[in-house]
Amino acid sequence: MRHDQLIQAIYDGLNVTAVTSLLTTAYSPMVAIFSADAPQVADAHAEGNFPFVSFLIVSDETLPTKELFGMNAMVQIDVWHRTASMKALTLVSKAVFDALNRQTMAGITGHIDTVLEGADYTTEPDGKTKRAMLEFRVTSLPTT
Predict the structure, then answer these.
(1) Per-residue pLDDT averaged across 51-56, rounded?
(2) Cys staple from 1: which of 24, 54, 71, 78, with CB 3.0 to 4.6 Å?
(3) What is the DSSP letter of 47?
(4) How far is it, in rounded angstroms, from Cα 30 to Cα 107?
(5) Nearest in space to 92 (alpha carbons), one of 17, 144, 28, 42
(6) Cβ proximity of 110 and 70 under 8 Å
(7) Alpha-carbon distance 49 to 73, whole Å?
(8) What does the alpha-carbon distance between residue 8 and residue 52 come to, in Å, rounded to a whole number?
(9) pLDDT (tens digit, 9 = 90+) per residue, 64-86?
(10) Looking at the predicted structure, is the pLDDT value of residue 1 above 80?
(11) What is the pLDDT of residue 37?
(12) Predicted local distance difference test score (pLDDT) of residue 137
């Protein structure tokens, strides 16, 4: 599995109705899921631009064999929301968890294990924005 394949697989895994139906439509026709390669709009702090999801590959270690490549990667997924309570943020985070945890990723050959390693819920310094940071470990074993 290559780095670009992992980015696409994470995006595809998140781009499901259970997740997207909970996100803002301010980015229409784009889906409010962003990676480091597809940053959000310039005014990301505008009220109508929440909730959205962003993700990045924190680390990846290629596990090469003679002709094929496996990967052990850490992916950070951030859910951003402006809500008075944590309930709405938790709903989106749960949808992200359900979409990725222990799910096979489309477009990737070989065995894939995707598991939640940790979650952290915080309120940003502006006092309005809430963030759920979910960390997933993705393992791809080469196939023969």
Answers:
(1) 93
(2) 71
(3) G
(4) 21
(5) 17
(6) yes
(7) 29
(8) 17
(9) 556 656 678 899 999 999 988 89
(10) no
(11) 67
(12) 92
Q: Residue 78 class from Cβ within 10 Å (0-12 exposed, 13-18 middle, 19+ buried)?
A: middle
Single-letter residue type at 128: K
Amino acid at 19: V
Amino acid identity at 6:
L
* Of 20, 37, 4, 16, residue with least CA distance to 103: 16
Residues 134/56, Cβ–Cβ less than 8 Å:
no
Decide if domain 3-141 falls under CATH 3.30.420.40: no
- pTM for this predicted structure: 0.87
Report the DSSP beta bridge partners of residue 115: 137
Mean pLDDT of 110-125: 89
- Residue with tokens 């709405």, as numbered in its chain: 88
Complete edge-to-edge strand list for the sheet that includes strand 69-82: 33-35, 52-64, 69-82, 129-141, 111-123
